[in-house]
Q: What sequence folds into this?
């Protein structure tokens, strides 16, 4: 058993809680400690290229891991899509807007003056939110209500603090301890392109065997179940 | 480049407001006889120790519909404070406050007390003494305060992002713009923007310092490193 | 001390101890009438502290300060007019010119409720009086020490104060300038007639300006009155030295001749006897006689037909040239120090061991208690 | 709370280094006769105008295996600079440089030149004059520089996040810690940590100011607001 | 000017124009030998500027400064020793005490290569000499002006300089202290024998200390030599006033009596004729005669048996009391100003219109060109 070993995992903010549970499960099974650093995938991308000591990288999209692999920073053959993000419309617990009943039309409600989403230019969740709004046909109507967080987590804070009366955020975040008292309406997966999230083992990982073991654990049925529990969909092709 | 213009507008507003608010505060802290004033001095520096986004988050709470500031603003102007330029200005003022006040205190304290006595004896009240004696003699400190608060506001992005909501033309400052480009791996664009920002800032700072030297130099510049 | 009937007189009665200072306490009570009053006393006597209190820059521990009927400070009432409201002009010992303002702007500083034109006129007039017109656009760091002194003086005099405080305003000026500025001050005083307190260590300035003298020592007033009375008939040894009396001789009173206003005293243990002005004393009393070296005349043969009563025979003990003056020590039983001009030395062929006669006017001899 | 300890260690190191580096730079800028020095003064303030994460990004590039600093470090010490405590210190020093240097320049310039003349005439060389005259007389400016750079480093998180990589125990400072918690909407924990940070910082600042007052007050504190 | 054979003599030959100043140029060439040389001249003459150049605080535009064989400054060689290497002590006119150091620490400042114990002894000795032991733990802001002056003087004197520059070190001190410190300075000078340049406006200090005088005016040297020669026989009217000659009368030379070393002159347009010391002049030459008011004696009847040659009959035009002295204006065809003591006024019953005789020693009369 690999007692005393430590894996360093860089994980996108939206998978934080799922990752923490996965890490605990993995540690109890293998004794290998997993240190999770959460942050912005864009930062991790730059940092891994600069030799950051991460063994594994769980990105919030597929683009960063692919680019890393192309540039030779990934252990060959380890890149895989571990989950797909889902989005919800979230309103604070004291909101009088019944989002669970109204669905999209809640966003058109005059009580909703600001809608927080992640910045579509940089965040996959933001892109998904915009395309879902377009699909629902209300983008032009709500365009002026939108405010942008640097990432989906910041969008959640806008809504949480009440400055935005609604937010389109990651399902995983809506399930997190700080947000789950609010009301959330799941946006059907078909309304936006899939939010593909890729993971890989870094090529300068100190402990490649353990890293691969963790990757395999995430792929396992327990791993999938945990991800699903935290609001992720598992890609069909896996 | 609207984000650039917005940034300079914000930095200018904030620096001006900070000078206006910071000066009386610094004056009082420099000349008050109150023994407990070191407590206040410490409080003035406190906004610095919090990470900007966290400070921004608390600002957001305060400006929110349940926050005191938000409710006040709503009552006064009929709309919220968050995600507006005014909100940005207020949050930035709070965050950059120490950069303005600390140098002012230090330079006010360095003014020779005998000159203040002389001014009083010549019939000048507090205000005239301040305007004609303390302020000109503290010029280096005032310039430092201006430069630090101006430059710091230009570069600030944590608070701005949090309170502003990154709305193009309203609250998307150039620093957020650059940040976004770095995040989306558009490094060339980020570099260009950063260089532009640096260039313009450099020009502005040069102007400030050159003018400062001209005003200041003749009478004092005698002792020099040989 | 002369008191005029109704005019605004500066009255001061205060006590002040500097924080953390135990050895020095200022404890004075004085009235300053219109015109120039000289504040005289050794270094550290408390003169500047007194002026600081009057100007309101230092808060006395207790007491009262008023100008005429207007009270400036009263500790019992917790009343304290801030300096800028006192309308007291004050030339600091340390000058405190504003380093960032030109000489002209410094002088203009105290003038503000005055129309621009009058102000210009005022300033340019005083610049001329004090011979600093050429420097008006220089900053204090760019002018000489004496020029700074004049600028500081001008800065205070252009204002229209109720009281003027001058702390050694003419030190560091050459004799010519001093004379000129003294004239200006006299004219200013004649025109304004306000109480002026003038600190100086210089006997010349006292003679030229003083209508009254207040002598201070160690925080207390030790004498006041006309300059001659206070300085020339000093009551205390320390003051006698301060006022420049080179000869300080112990004496015993032999007898009074009240009709002539004189009394006879014997100096030291010698047999030297001289006549000095009458004082409250009785035969047998001991005291000190103070005589200026410059008040003693030397003669190479016994003088005749002179009105001076005190003529002492002696022998030159030493003769030393100090610059433009010779210092002769003459032994007449007690040793006198006399100043004589080198010309006199040559003409009288003075030399050590030579027999000479000292001529002392009665009124050049002062009894000190 | 290891992140808290780490933050104070970092802030302490950075403030100390900044004082050590900033002082000679400020000395030179304050007393040099060079006419173009306003250019340098402007450059000194430039790190401020870039958003911290962007500055951190450039720092990361410089410290990375292909960056000049990274290669130098590798040659000297056999390991990279990014993602180490040393790397954090270097990046923070660069970022907080203006906060240390500007107040120092202002207070050095305010020292009466006549006193420096007096010191020279008494045989004191530049160093002795600096240590015995300029430095003590610039104490308010030195304190300002220390406080600003210390507090700013405590609160800094953009540069630190980028260069340090947020590694628990090595480069995860308390401000990143708080930031993380806010990001994951664990507000209670964030509040607790923020309060703790504020409390300790307040205590430290109070100490600095109180000591500063004691050293400084007796001789100077006479002219006060009435 | 006396030159000793080998000793380190301060030689200065410089030109300096302040930046942005067109009216004032310092252009001097002088040698300062061992002992005290007085630098004398009106305010703004360039005395402080000269000292600043010697100390290395101001860089001359051109010229050379050296002590003995060691060159301090040479513009042709672009050689300039920084002030801290010159070993020149300098008491500034503005004192420049370090405000954050106590009096004791201020004085210690210049002593560093000396063992701790010697340093303490040194400092406490000079504290005693200057009577400031009690103040040693005070800061400059907490002591009086005169005390500051003494601290600044002490600070410079404890070091072991090669040259000492003193810029009005005793202004603002009372006569007693001044006398005591003058004694200390004389002793110090006797012990150290280094070149000392001493700026003062005070005739007393010149007389007490000066071995030589250099007179400066408007940036140029206008005289040097023994104090008497420079100050008592001034060559220029301005200096005559600066040195305190109240009487400055135009005169025409009538005839020389070379054997007696005198010449006869007539004053103004009057018929007054007096004898004055011989000078390079011929009959018919015009000049000015300077006489001190204090050098003139008054008599109420024609004096007899006195060695003085110049006795002029006149009438008192006015009599004014100024403090301890009376100023008499006597009309003898030209008007003389004479100082007499109030005692003399009483004894001689002086009053306006009274007929009096003036007694003038030949050597009190100085020809000014
Ligand atoms: N830094 C300066 N810049 C321009 N002019 C100056 C500067 N310093 C002095 N001066 C001028 O040079 C002349 C000589 O000044 P200096 O200080 O040498 O005079 P001083 O003989 O010491 O006079 P005082 O007896 O008043 O101290 C003065 O006219 C003065 O105004
Ligand atoms: N701020 C102060 N703190 C403590 N002691 C002080 C302070 N100011 C003055 N003193 C002391 O008080 C005494 C009187 O000082 P003051 O300045 O009034 O003297 P002065 O008569 O003006 O002397 P000078 O003729 O030397 O100027 C001195 O012994 C001085 O040391
Ligand atoms: Mg005084
Ligand atoms: Mg001078």
A:
């Amino acid at each position: 058993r690999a007692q005393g070993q430590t894996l360093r995992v860089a994980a996108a903010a939206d998978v934080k809680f799922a990752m923490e549970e996965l890490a605990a499960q993995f540690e109890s099974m293998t004794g290998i400690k997993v240190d999770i650093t959460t942050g912005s995938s864009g930062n991790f991308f730059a940092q891994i290229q600069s030799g950051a000591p991460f063994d594994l990288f769980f990105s919030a999209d597929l683009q960063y891991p692919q680019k890393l692999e192309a540039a030779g920073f990934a252990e060959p053959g380890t890149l895989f899509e571990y989950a797909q993000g889902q989005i919800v419309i979230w309103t604070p617990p004291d909101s009088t807007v019944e989002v669970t009943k109204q669905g999209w039309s809640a966003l058109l409600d005059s009580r909703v003056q600001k809608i927080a989403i992640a910045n579509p230019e940089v965040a996959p969740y933001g892109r998904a939110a915009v395309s879902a709004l377009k699909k629902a046909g209300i983008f032009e109507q709500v365009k002026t209500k939108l405010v942008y967080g640097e990432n989906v987590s910041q969008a959640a804070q806008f809504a949480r603090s009440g400055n935005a009366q609604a937010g389109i955020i990651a399902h995983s975040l809506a399930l997190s301890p700080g947000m789950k008292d609010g009301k959330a309406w799941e946006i059907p997966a078909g309304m936006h392109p899939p939010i593909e999230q890729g993971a890989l083992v870094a090529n300068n990982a100190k402990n490649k065997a353990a890293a691969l073991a963790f990757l395999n654990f995430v792929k396992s049925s327990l791993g999938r179940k945990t991800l699903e529990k935290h609001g992720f969909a598992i890609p069909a092709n896996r | 480049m609207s984000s650039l213009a917005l940034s300079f507008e914000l930095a200018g507003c904030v620096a001006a407001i900070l000078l206006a608010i910071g000066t009386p505060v610094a004056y009082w802290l420099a000349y008050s006889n109150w023994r407990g004033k070191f407590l206040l001095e410490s409080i003035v520096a406190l906004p610095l120790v919090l990470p900007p986004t966290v400070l921004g988050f608390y600002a957001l709470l305060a400006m929110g519909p349940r926050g005191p500031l938000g409710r006040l603003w709503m009552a006064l102007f009929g709309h919220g404070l968050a995600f507006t330029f005014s909100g940005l200005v207020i949050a930035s003022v709070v965050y950059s406050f120490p950069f303005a006040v600390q140098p002012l205190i230090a330079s006010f304290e360095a003014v020779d007390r005998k000159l203040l006595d002389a001014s009083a004896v010549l019939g000048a009240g507090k205000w005239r003494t301040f305007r004609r004696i303390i302020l000109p003699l503290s010029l280096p400190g005032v310039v430092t305060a201006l430069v630090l608060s101006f430059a710091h506001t230009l570069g600030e992005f944590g608070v701005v992002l949090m309170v502003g909501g990154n709305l193009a033309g309203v609250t998307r400052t150039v620093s957020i713009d650059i940040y976004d480009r770095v995040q989306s791996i558009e490094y060339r664009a980020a570099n260009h923007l950063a260089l532009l920002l640096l260039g313009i800032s450099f020009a502005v700072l040069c102007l400030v310092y050159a003018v400062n030297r001209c005003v200041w130099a003749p009478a004092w510049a005698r002792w020099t490193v040989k | 001390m002369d008191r005029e009937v109704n005019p605004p007189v500066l009255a001061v009665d205060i006590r002040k101890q500097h924080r953390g200072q135990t050895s020095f306490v200022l404890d004075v009570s004085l009235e300053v009438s219109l015109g120039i009053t000289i504040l005289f006393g050794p270094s550290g006597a408390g003169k500047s502290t007194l002026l600081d209190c009057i100007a309101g820059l230092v808060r006395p521990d207790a007491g009262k300060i008023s100008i005429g009927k207007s009270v400036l400070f009263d500790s019992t009432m917790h009343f304290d007019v801030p300096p800028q409201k006192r309308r007291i002009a004050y030339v600091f010992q340390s000058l405190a010119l504003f380093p960032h303002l030109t000489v002209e702007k410094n002088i203009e500083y105290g003038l503000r409720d005055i129309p621009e034109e009058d102000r210009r006129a005022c300033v340019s007039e005083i610049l001329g009086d004090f011979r600093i017109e050429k420097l008006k656009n220089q900053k204090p760091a760019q002018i000489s020490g004496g020029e700074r002194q004049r600028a500081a003086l001008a800065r205070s005099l252009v204002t229209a104060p109720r009281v003027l405080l001058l702390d050694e305003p003419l030190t560091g000026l050459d004799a010519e300038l001093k004379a000129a500025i003294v004239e200006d001050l006299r004219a200013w005083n004649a025109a304004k007639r306000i109480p002026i307190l003038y600190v100086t260590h210089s006997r010349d300035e006292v003679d030229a300006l003083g209508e009254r003298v207040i002598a201070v020592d160690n925080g207390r007033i030790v004498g006041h009155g006309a300059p001659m009375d206070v300085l020339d008939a000093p009551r205390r040894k320390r003051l006698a030295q301060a006022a420049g009396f080179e000869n300080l001789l112990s004496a015993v009173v032999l007898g009074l001749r009240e009709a002539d206003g004189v009394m006879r005293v014997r100096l030291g243990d010698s047999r030297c006897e001289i006549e000095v002005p009458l004082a409250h004393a009785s035969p047998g009393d001991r005291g000190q006689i103070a005589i200026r070296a410059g008040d003693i005349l030397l003669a190479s043969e016994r003088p005749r037909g002179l009105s001076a009563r005190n003529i002492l025979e002696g022998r030159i003990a030493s003769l030393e040239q100090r610059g433009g003056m010779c210092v002769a020590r003459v032994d007449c039983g007690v040793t006198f120090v006399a100043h004589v001009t080198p010309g006199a030395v040559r003409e009288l062929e003075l030399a050590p061991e030579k027999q000479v006669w000292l001529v002392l006017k009665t009124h050049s001899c002062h009894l000190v208690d």
